[in-house]
Write a structure and sequence with these properties.
By secondary structure, the chain is α/β, with parallel strands linked by helices. Helices cover about 35% and strands about 15% of the residues. It folds into 2 domains: about 10-110 and about 305-340, NAD(P)-binding Rossmann-like Domain (Rossmann fold, 3-Layer(aba) Sandwich); about 115-295, Rossmann fold (3-Layer(aba) Sandwich). It has a 7-stranded parallel β-sheet with strand order 8-7-6-9-10-11-12, sandwiched between helices. β10 (about 245), α11 and β11 (about 270) form a beta-alpha-beta unit. It starts with 9 loop residues before the first strand and ends in a 26-residue tail after the last helix.
């Protein structure tokens, strides 16, 4: 089913300096919009007040990162009809408020799942094989041959996946089929039909995931129920030689509790692409730890993913503004479908 929306011609990128899309690519996208008759401004606003003040004319807000599209913003932008995220997560958008105000929130499900899985696997391998440790010390003039933690055979380990959506499934394939790693998963929203499609994955509860996993990789959205779910209690249940990987959202982990767990030896390794505060502070203890691998919220980054991302950004917005059509597959706030006052128009 496809939906029609009111025709609009004004769009604003509200966080052009976020870093997930280069200035050159944004300029190219701006020209592509212009060729389709859409006026797109490239701006960077740091607050709700700035977005409200400068986006009164906008019918579409484009978010390359996680700008605050709160209930306050939504109720003060009466012309707004569409919010387009250049990614999967929509945790900075108040979906309930958007639905109440009839605003369509579009995201890009699964556009970078292979990249996310590959990035998580690279962290697992880098930590397991001490490659980052060796690299750092060799560059420092040392030669720590066969030192540090003795690498373990991945075929003898259990990978626990917290969340079994898009990026978790290719990571299962990489680790289980590539290295023979056993895989368990915790995801209360997975259907029995999906479970039947993955007979080599043992689905367990959260406590069992913590206690049985040698490696935990996080593949879940940030919600009221998942925020800081990996906290002091969770780390106390994990194995002392275990590893945690996060390529989802920083606030799924209580960072202070993680630092304490790593420092005390309660867990052994962490690979982090996302953080509670970004960019990470240079004085954050995580930056000084040998048993941690850090990357700069770039797990999504790759040639195929970026091409898909830019194509969708152009296609979804252009179809909405010029053809009055929105594909519901990309609608993040499904509740807007049932709002008789929505700004979508006539459904087909």
């Amino acid at each position: 089913m496809l939906w029609e929306v009111f025709k609009v011609m004004s769009a604003v990128v509200v966080d052009k300096d976020y870093g997930s899309i280069s200035p050159v690519k944004l300029k190219e996208l701006q020209r592509d919009y212009q060729s389709q008759g859409i006026c797109c401004r490239l701006e960077h606003y740091d607050s709700e007040a700035d977005i409200i003040e400068h986006c009164q004319d906008a019918s579409a807000i484009l978010a390359t990162g996680n700008p605050p599209i709160s209930a306050y913003v939504l109720e003060n932008l009466p012309n707004l009809k569409i919010v387009q995220r250049f990614g999967i997560g929509v945790n900075s958008v108040d979906l309930d408020a958007a639905s109440q105000h009839g605003v369509i929130v579009l995201n890009m499900p699964n556009f970078c799942i292979e990249e996310l899985a590959t990035h998580a696997a690279s962290m697992i391998l880098g930590l397991s094989r001490n490659t980052c440790y060796y690299d750092r010390h060799i560059r420092n003039g040392e030669w720590p041959k066969a030192q540090y933690y003795e690498p373990r055979n991945l075929g003898s380990l259990t990978l626990g996946l917290y969340g079994f959506g898009g990026s978790a499934r290719p990571l299962f394939r990489i680790m289980h089929m590539g290295f023979g790693t056993r895989v368990i998963a915790c995801d209360p929203y997975i259907t029995q039909q999906t479970k039947d499609q993955y007979p080599d994955v043992n689905f367990v509860n959260f406590e069992t995931l913590l206690e049985k996993s040698d490696i935990i990789s996080i593949h879940a959205p940030l919600t009221e129920t998942t925020i800081r779910i990996f906290n002091q209690d969770a780390f106390s249940r994990m194995k002392n030689d275990s590893m945690i990987i996060n390529i989802s959202r920083g606030s799924l982990i209580d960072e202070k509790a993680l630092i304490k767990a790593l420092d005390s030896g309660k867990i052994r390794f962490a690979g982090l692409d996302v953080f509670e505060k970004e960019p990470i502070d240079s004085m954050n203890p995580l930056t000084k730890m040998e048993n941690v691998v850090l990357t700069c919220h770039s797990a999504f980054y790759g040639d195929t993913a970026q091409a898909t991302q830019l194509h969708l950004a152009l296609d979804l917005v252009t179809r909405a503004l010029n053809e009055n059509i929105v594909d519901p597959y990309y609608v993040a706030n499904k509740a807007v479908m049932n709002n008789p006052k929505n700004k979508i128009g006539i459904s087909k």
